[in-house]
Amino acid sequence: MASTAAPPTMPAAARLQDYPVDVTAGDLFRHAPPDLAARWLAMADGLAALREEAGVPVQEVVARQIQELGLSFRMAGDDDERPWPLSPMPLIVGAQEWATVEQGLVQRARLLERVIADIYGPQRLVSEGHLPAALVAGSRYFARNTVGVRPRGGHYLNVVAVDLARGPRGQWRVLGDRLRLVNGIGYALENRLALSRSTGNLLGDVHARRLARFFADLRSGIARSCTRENPRIALLTPGRLNQSYPEQAHLARYLGFPLVEGRDCAVIDGRLYIRTIAGPKRIDALWRWIDTNALDPLAFDARSEIGVPDLYEVCASGGLELCNWPGAEVLEAPAFAAFLPRLSQILAGEAPILPNIATWWCGQAREADIVKARLDEMVVTSAFGAAVDGLPPGTSVPGAGLSGAQREALIDALQRRPMDYCGQEIVQLSTTPALIDERFVPRAFTVRAFVARGPDGEWTVMPGGFARLSADGAVQTMLMGEGDLSADVCVVDTTPARTGRAVATMLDQTPKVRRGGGILASQAADNLFWFARYVERAELTVRVIRAILGSSIEVDAAGGSNPEVIARMMALLAEWHAIDERQAAGPVPEACRAALGDAELPGAVAAILAQIRATGLTLRDRLTSDFWRIAGRPMPAMNSHRPATLLRVAHELVERLAALSGLLAENFVRGPAWHFLDLGRRVERAQGICAMARVLAGPDGEGDEQADALGALLDLSDCQITYRARYLAGPRRLPVLDLLLLDPDNPRSLAYQVNAAAGHIASLPSLTEDMLPEVPLLAARAIAGTLQSNTIELFGTDLLVQTEAQLLALSDTISARYFLQFEKTAGGGAGLLA
């Protein structure tokens, strides 16, 4: 019996031998054969050495890497994402044990394919009495209109996830199947990536098999049935509010798939296209991450707002490879688990290598009586995954844990609609060592394993998976709960693999040399454009607040020292909706505090920062981890109305926003994505310059008030030093305005912004073949022409107001031309479809 004394902390070699565990629980380490136990000890010793080298707990080392990679998730009910909870100690499974699991997974994937092919094909299993008709028709995921339609590639399934539990005696059993959304496959990749980067060569030292070959095979398997040599494969996401959106974005980036939403796509002449800035581009295959019911509002649920009209028609006619086929998730229903063991004998003539947990579907009288009689020995769950009376939505309930009233209510509901319920055996889980607070403690675990079709159409198994370490031992769900951890699953060989698939990775392949950033979807261009505008808008607003609080280079030139100038800048904040009219007329510190931190005001800095984060989430597959580290910082604390405190916050925000701008400027390849990013920045800055010049440099000012206002304008534009180097005099209206409006060499001038915007638009692809400039370019050139053909003496207030209106119109023409303004037209246009 292992000692139950408190184990030592990490620094002294992390004594895995001393960690407490109940020997009856089938612990992965305690019951490992000697050669495998040596791998566990080597991993623990390596983590201890890492802790010594870093000087901080190894959990912090891994957490830093997770932050660097931008790994996060959202629990049900959360508004904000949480850092991904990864345990530094992986699950280690020996190659011999995994070989049996692998065989069972391939067997199960083949069985599921056969059952789905029959349900949506000849339906012999129902007609011959092997499956109750109510079991199929009763599922909310049964897609009736797909019956009789066969996928182009001949397969209904391309990717399968299987939830596994390991019992106290080491036996592996199936908890459930995931055919609709294979959540966790991206997190398995992220776990391995984070652990590899934070532990150096430690995984290689324990001979862990690599995952990259599996993902290469998955990608090739999806492309296998496409008719083009270099098919375009996209990942269809429900959008950034989906709980697994971070996983989807990371997976799409790793596989090189465009990440698209339903509104990015359109059907033209029996093909699916993605709306891009260069017109529609054909999609050959689609990996869907949305429910069948939401996939096509014309074929399934008309209320869907995230699907693509006519998408199913394209699939049915053979114009698109879809992974997985609509309606495949019908087999996810827990009720099917009661029939799959027998179907394995009927369809394949063999018993399951990985048996289901014992399941009784109450749609059969005998099974319903068994469940009611043995309720205390079972877990009761919804037969088809829908909300039912007597059970909390989406959960399973142990019968023994029900109160008298709850028990009566459940039995009453079961008698009224028995087909809605299943009884399942209570599963006892193996444990694994988890590193928590620098101690090794046993945690019950479940594993989600993944199977995919390779380039030859045969099933291949990921050598590992995604493990959930339960905080309370619950097995009812694979969703991450409060206090749960994830862990990498490492399949290890007793000797290092020397050849073949075990060591090959996607990085070993030499890709064809290419340049550019691939296609740019219209929605992505829209998000890039507005993301840059929000960053620039926030910086301009903070600069105005900072000027109000008195942050000029010289005290006697500070706009903040003149009440009239303060009033003008307060009016500018009110015009930008950073404060309301009442606040504009009130005490300055209170107004500045609201302009910084009142998220209810649409133009306040806090609200704009929220827009930056929200828009940035849609660009997760394009932005670096450095960006996420800066953008994810909370609003600086403002615990008083004192000007010095608010000024400190303003300084910090200017530095933060400048860092974001710098990252955006330096980290993008100068392709279409970059053009839209900088285009948004230039348009927003140009509008801001016009507004600031109109408010602060009007012709009606005179004396000290005008000098202070012009000094504040130079501060806001970060041009004080440039002005003083050019003019050995205090701020004067015409020289200041020439520097800020018409000087094409000043990167803070209006002319510079307009010229840069015209250059970006000219670099974007054209929809026509006549080489004539399109409307946005004509609009930008018109503004540039006005600025180039006037001197500052002629550039009066009326012309400034006119330019401001032209800039607003330019933004509208850019949106109309590039951002999801594509209309479905028969035949499209010459040269548009590729």
UniProtKB/TrEMBL annotation:
Ranges for domain Circularly permuted ATP-grasp type: 90-469
Annotated ranges, domain DUF403: 520-819
SUPFAM superfamilies with a match to the protein in the record: Glutathione synthetase ATP-binding domain-like (SSF56059)
Name by which UniProt lists this protein: Circularly permuted type 2 ATP-grasp protein
Originating species: Novosphingobium cyanobacteriorum
